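[Q] Does anyone have a clean structure-token version of this?
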Amino acid sequence: MYHWQIRKLFSGKYMCEPGDIILIDKFVDDAGKTNTQHSFVVLSVEAGKIQGIDYKMVLSLMSSFRGKSEEYKTKKLSYWWNIYIDATNTDVPNGNKEEGFIKGNQLYYFTIGPEECNVIGSVTIEVWEKLNYIIKKLDKMDKKDNKNRLIQNINNL
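[A] Here you go.
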């Protein structure tokens, strides 16, 4: 049994916490495109404000290599902030067992709360620690460096 399944036994629901993988029904990406049914890693469930807008959670976008070429995979994994994921470093019961990556340079601020999450699994502690290291390193880098910077996306859907 996974830690998020144990939480459900005691609380009656899947309230997400940092390190969980959740499925978001609808969001707007960094290019302004509306997407549906996408996985994210929960970074924080502490509410706050960014650019004057309230948020309840901070998430990091996940992406799969499904239908993509080896060249695409190699390119995406060449960026030091992207973290390779597969069935060995995630705990997703009934998951699709596909390879993919976490976009460690992209933070998504959502107005939905942790009690509204559709938890589907979690990342391993090693992935969680690497993701936190990447975010902290990017946050300390020159904000004018368009290549090595955190991309912050605010979602009010």
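[Q] Thanks! Anything notable?
[A] The radius of gyration is 15 Å.
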